[in-house]
Each structure stands twice: as C-alpha cells, then as structure tokens.
Amino acid sequence: MILGYSLHGQRELGLSLFSELEKKSSIEIDPLTFAAVLHACSTAGMVEEGWLCFNRIRSPKVTHHALMVSVLARAGLFDEARIFIQEYHMERYPEVLRALLEGCRIHVQVKTGKRVIDQLCELKPLSAENYIMLSNWYAAEAKWDVVNQAYSWIEFRNKVHVFGTGDVSCPRSEGIFWELQSLMKKMEGDSLRPKPDFSLHYVDEERKWTQIGHSEILALSFGLISTQVGATIHVTKNLRMRHICHDFAKAISKMVEGEIIIKDPSCFHHFEYGFCSCRDFW
C-alpha cells in the first residue's frame, strides 16, 4: 500500500502509514516495506527521511542501496551518491548505477550519465537494456541515430484505441485535431516550451510534429471528444512521458472539468486543475 501511494503521487500518505506501523511494536518492519518507504522518499525528494529509513535497516540488500542512491541522485546530490556507492562498494551492481543514471536524467547531467552508461555496458556487455539507455543519451545530445516509436492507448466502449505519433488513422482524426487546436488557442505558449531530457522517443519523427501530434495527447483529445464533460480520462503510454506533453496535459486540465490520468512506465500522472500528482518529478 505504501508503494501504491508513492506510485500515485501520494507519498506523504504512504510515509504517514509507515509511521503508524512503527508505533505498533508488535509489527516487525520487513525489507519490502523499507524498500517501499525508500521509493516514496526518492520520488518525493525527501533526503533526510530517506537516510533515517536506510539507517534503520539491519541488513540492507542491494535493492535498498540502489533506492538510497536514487534518493540522493534524484535530489541532485551526486557527490553524496558517489561517496555512498564507494563506501558500500556498490560500483559493480547495475541496479545501483541505473539509480544514479535516473538522477542524471532528471537533472540533465549528460556527461555524468554517459560515464554511468559506459560502466553499465562494461559490466554487462550483452545486455540490450544498457544499449537502449545509451541511445537515450544520444537522444539527449540530439544525435538522432536511434528511433523508438511511442504509442498511447485509451479504452472507450470496450474497445482499445491506439495512437502513434502524428497518427491520422483514426476515423475521428479531424475532430481530435480540431479539439486540440481549439485548446491551444486558449493556452499560454510559454508553458509549453520543451525541456531537454533522456526520453527515448524524442526522435526525428516526433520533431516533425507540434506537441499536439504526440501519441498521449492524441489519445487524450480522443477521450475529450468521446466522453461526457467531467468524466475521468485514462490514457496509457508505452514510453516515458516527455516534459512538453506533461506541460500540455497540465494546461488542458486547467480548462476541462474532470481528472486526466496518464500512465507511463514511471508512474501514474493524475492531472487536475493544472497540477500533476507527480509534482513534475518523475
């Protein structure tokens, strides 16, 4: 339940639940619970609470070390993260290095991220995942050698509708783009300025389109024109949501009545009244 709260942007509720468990002396906190708490601290940027949790673990496993690195790296504390890795001799554990890499992505530490990816490739030269992450770095450097298609889908009337980038195959495409263009006229352009990231799907194909051509935004527009006002719209995306689309979804949520939920591999994004449950930290 603590992890569930964390994934849905309710980190404080998860940590509050953990505090209640601590007060009950009859309940022994197991390693999985500590891992869930560290995950909540990581996604919320709560470094002090993360340290308190980690120091309470009697025999921390590699997973706990990786999560503590995530707490530090996501907060931008790269020196502390590196010292922690060295002190606990965690340099050769891929999950620990990936946690450090996630912080590099968030804080756009491209050079550090490249070094971490090189370490991962040395540790596991046959791992396809490492080379996918390497392609992320090339994308962040605007080297568009690797293309990975993004897809989003939405269920409506017991049917799943799938959208790709710039997709016009839907019979209702005209209405979808008309709805988005109408919304764009009401928005302030500054809020839609793209931010650099390590997203795999920031590729040539998507650069041909404005933000309204991204798959999750097309699926969202389909939901807006297909459901009643006030209905909750659920969209799922196969790749991490880009900042520009995240900003766009927040802007849309200011103008519509009802909640927008977009799930990507990182978390569930709950958009409402111009805010997201992830607090722009995912």
Structure description:
With 282 residues, this protein is of the alpha+beta class. The protein folds into two domains: 2-140, Serine Threonine Protein Phosphatase 5, Tetratricopeptide repeat (Alpha Horseshoe); 151-276, no CATH class. Helix content is 52%, strand content 10%. The protein contains 13 helices and six strands. It has helices at 2-7, 11-23, 31-44, 47-56, 62-74, 78-87, 94-106, 110-123, 128-140, 173-185, 204-207, 215-226, 243-255; strands at residues 151-156, 159-164, 233-237, 260-263, 268-272, 275-276. A six-stranded mixed sheet has the order 2-1-3-4-5-6, with helices on one face. Strand 3, helix 13 and strand 4 form a beta-alpha-beta unit. Helix 4 runs antiparallel to helix 5 and helix 5 runs parallel beside helix 7 (94-106). The radius of gyration is 20 Å and the shape is globular. Mean pLDDT is 80; it is low at 142-147 and 192-210. Residues 193-282 form the DYW domain. Belongs to the PPR family. PCMP-H subfamily. This is DYW domain-containing protein.
Helical fraction: 40-55%
The major β-sheet equals:
6 strands, mixed
At the fold tier of CATH, the topology name of the largest domain is Serine Threonine Protein Phosphatase 5, Tetratricopeptide repeat
Order of helices and strands: HHHHHHHHHEEHHHEHEEE
* First-last Cα distance: 19 Å
Q: Identify low-pLDDT runs.
A: 142-147, 192-210
Number of domains: 2
* Strand order of the biggest β-sheet: 2-1-3-4-5-6
Rg on CA atoms, Å: 20 Å
CATH architecture of the largest domain: Alpha Horseshoe
* CATH level 1 name of the largest domain: Mainly Alpha
Instruction: Return the structural class.
Output: alpha+beta
